[in-house]
Amino acid sequence: MKATKKYNFYAGPAILPESVLHQAASAVTNFDNMGLSILEISHRSPNFTKVMQDAQLLAKELTGAGDEFEALFLTGGASSQFFMTAMNLLNTDETAAYINTGTWSTKAIKEAKLFGNIVLAASSEDDGYRYIPKQLSNLGNAKYLHYTSNNTIYGTQYHQLPDTTLPLIGDLSSDIFSRPVDLNRHAVIYAGAQKNMGPAGTTLVLVRKDMLGRVKHQIPTLLDYRTHINKGSMFNTPPVYAVYVSMLTMRWVAQQGGPEAMASHNSKKAAMLYKEIDNNPLFTGYARKEDRSKMNVTFNINDETLENAFVEACSEAGIVGIKGHRSVGGFRASIYNAMPVEGVEKLVDVMQTFSKQHGA
Amino acid sequence: MKATKKYNFYAGPAILPESVLHQAASAVTNFDNMGLSILEISHRSPNFTKVMQDAQLLAKELTGAGDEFEALFLTGGASSQFFMTAMNLLNTDETAAYINTGTWSTKAIKEAKLFGNIVLAASSEDDGYRYIPKQLSNLGNAKYLHYTSNNTIYGTQYHQLPDTTLPLIGDLSSDIFSRPVDLNRHAVIYAGAQKNMGPAGTTLVLVRKDMLGRVKHQIPTLLDYRTHINKGSMFNTPPVYAVYVSMLTMRWVAQQGGPEAMASHNSKKAAMLYKEIDNNPLFTGYARKEDRSKMNVTFNINDETLENAFVEACSEAGIVGIKGHRSVGGFRASIYNAMPVEGVEKLVDVMQTFSKQHGA
Fold first, then answer.
1. Edge to edge, what strands does the sheet with A296-301 contain?
2. Which of residues 174-213 of B touch A (CB under 8 A)?
3. Which chain A residue is nearest to residue B19, measuring alpha carbons?
4. B95: distance to nearest CA of chain A, Å?
């Protein structure tokens, strides 16, 4: 299928399973044997209505969501959920608590402040967001606690949920379906598709319905979760193709054995890569060991003058998307669900060869 | 490419050019010879950055937009622009005028009321939205006048712009790029992609920059046009694939000769179909003749008991998407830019044969 074999370590949009891409391409010419492209059929046609229903069912199945939750496929990315969560759940005179573990948390806090009283429960800003803060404060009268499950830029991840009895709002953009989630602790989880769920263009929101309808201010129709709940996520034209490819990807996750199987697959890949980082004298991991992400492995090269040469060595081996985010520098290997073990082996191989060549 | 030849008359998502679908499918397996799918590459990669820039340039070129305008590819559909236009341009104590020509105008009015004082300049509700009202009132101190350029459900269309010196906000969702537009009369035009521009999943907003930054209320970052203007429509991850396919479709429009050539092509198709409706004793057009749409041709069958039989006859000829919207009934033939003359000929042929068979 591909012109040359590439190992795709992009942070997002990111690698998707080969079998999904194959079906996704086929649907662009002839979807469901309709003799039409999926790009040009009505979203009210039975063929697409079924795709949306399957996507909603799969999202609920893979997260263990009960009937009290609704699965919505919206647009606008996680960035839109930063304000939509607060807009739908918080009154101006109410308080919500937020944990700041990096860039995305910071943005979520900024938007929520437009709708209520926002308190900081914890932050890891003091050490360049290298860790997940465990001690929480200011939870007193908060309506919910918001956290970012995995931090793509810094390479940290929650390995257990924040220690509170408050309903959680979780930004799971970069680790949804990569491991089981305890949805019963949550009021809302949301995730931009473009890491573990599909291509850019849709955002999954799983919302506990009894949390809604309690705010006094008016909400534009399209920003009110209830609008989408009442119409099965089809109030207006949904992002048809992004939902379709997400549905295919969720089906692939289910076929692989679901989030439990993904967790074991992802742990194996992460262990291989962190082992190499820790053993190779040329490299140093960025995040604290106990909070390391199994999705985004961040590391630096000890001799920064070798940075470009390492990127070049990766490139020659077919490895793309390895450069770190500009706010951390160094390297970032994103090893989402669809990354095969073979891709990580290739990267480890390049690291070892490069290390030998440069006398480490 | 297709299993069987279909004539796609869906109202939206709708027919796209064959050559666009061919390129769109190819990019899902190997985009730009990168050895990667367009669904799995970073939106910050030079390959996609170029797609976004090309899309912005084409949108401006095809509408004749000068430097005072910015072209944004957002999400959320035209339905999100119903509130975003008012949210970005109107203060609570200011007035805006709206023309009600049907379902979509009604929704735009409802959302705008959350942000300012909305007055009705005209309405065609009194006659089932069969016409475009020409007399306007209440324009006195309005900041802008909002209109819906083409009404997909009722099959009416503005053939000249509303008679006012006020800046216009135009919902061009269903007729953008189908004919030239006088952008200089507008503050904003917006269009959901899924008719004449591409697949569902992105919305074009052309906004005159000097209209912004004048409102007193706070706007969530993602809903502020200035956020997207400042970042070249890449503040957060855009809907990559929908923008790509829209870019291909706009390029196709340019290759066909641009909106002028499209207007002539569309007038020819519409004339053929309306001629048959007017001559065939079995059918009656829905909209008033002078306001008939060249995009969505609405008509009823005089003997309603034949409705299903006509749909069946169309279906046998490979014609899909011909059923009218539930609020109007009858039939609707959507003949957007990508519909070839051949498709309209086929429909006329079926109408004539059906008419003979049923003794008209």
1. A283-285, A296-301, A331-334
2. 192, 194, 198-202
3. A29
4. 18
Chain A residues in contact with B15 (beta carbon < 8 A): 40
| Phi and psi at residue B49, to the nearest 5° | -55, -40
- Phi and psi at B163, nearest 5°, equal -80, 85
β-pairing, B69-74 vs B95-100, is unpaired
Q: Is the CB of B13 less than 8 angstroms away from the CB of A42?
A: yes
Residues 237-266 of A with CB under 8 A from B: 237-242, 245
DSSP letters spanning B225-282: HHHHHHTTT-SS---HHHHHHHHHHHHHHHHTTHHHHHHHHHHHHHHHHHHHHHH-TT
What's residue A1's pLDDT? 38
Nearest to A222 among B39, B76, B239 (CB): B76
| Residues facing B98 on adjacent strands | B120, B146
Quick check: helix, strand or coil at residue A179?
coil
User: Which residues face B145 on adjacent strands?
Assistant: B97, B168
The matching CATH number, chosen from 3.40.50.150, 3.40.50.2300, 1.10.510.10, 3.40.640.10, for B18-255 is 3.40.640.10
B268 in active site: no
Interface probe for A, chosen from B1, B37, B174, B231 (most Cβ of A below 10 Å), is B37
The answer to whether residue B195 is catalytic is yes
The predicted complex's ipTM stands at 0.97
CATH superfamily to which A258-357 belongs? Aspartate Aminotransferase, domain 1 (3.90.1150.10)
Segment B277-290 shows an average pLDDT of 98
pLDDT for A3 equals 41
Q: Omega into B162 within 30° of 0, i.e. cis? A: no
Intervals of chain A under pLDDT 50? 1-3
The distance between the two most distant Cα atoms of chain A, rounded to a whole number of Å, is 66
* Neighbouring residues of B275: CB distance < 8 A, sequence distance ≥ 6: none
Sign of the alpha-carbon dihedral angle for A52, A54, A60, A63: negative
Preceding peptide of A13 cis, ω within 30°: yes
How many CB pairs below 8 Å do chains A and B form together?
A: 215
Say what the pLDDT of residue B216 is: 96
Query: How large is the C-alpha radius of gyration of chain B?
Result: 21
Indicate the residue of B41, B218, B321 with minimum beta-carbon distance to A10: B41
State CA A320 to chain mean position distance.
Answer: 19
d(CA A207, CA B128): 39
User: Could you state, in order of their start, the residue ranges of all structural domains in chain B?
Assistant: 18-255, 258-357
Interface residue A106 vs chain B (CB under 8 A): no
Rounded to the nearest 5 degrees, what angle is found at the Cα of B38, between the Cα atoms of B23 and B26?
25
Q: What is the pTM of this model?
A: 0.97
Question: Which contacts qualify for B17-23: CB closer than 8 Å, 24 or more apart?
Answer: B17/B249, B17/B252, B17/B337, B17/B338, B19/B252, B20/B245, B20/B248, B20/B249, B20/B252, B20/B338, B21/A28, B21/A29, B21/A37, B21/A39, B21/A40, B22/A29, B23/B248
CB B93 within 8 A of CB B215: no
From the candidates A2, A22, A75, which should be mutated to test the interface with B, based on the most B CB atoms within 10 A? Answer: A75
With a CB-CB cutoff of 8 Å, which residues 26-45 of chain A face chain B?
A: 26, 28-30, 33-37, 39-43, 45
* Radius of gyration, CA atoms only, chain A: 21
Which residues on chain B are in Cβ contact (under 8 Å) with A111?
220-222
What are the DSSP calls for B151-196, one per residue? Answer: ETTTTEE-SS--S-SSPEEEE-TTTTTSS---GGGEEEEEEESTTT
Confidence category of residue B1, pLDDT binned at 50, 70, 90: very low
In 10 A of CB B300, how many CB atoms? 18
Structure confidence at residue B76 (pLDDT): 97
The conformation of residue B292, written as its DSSP 8-state character, comes to B
Alpha carbons B288 and A81: distance in angstroms, whole number? 44
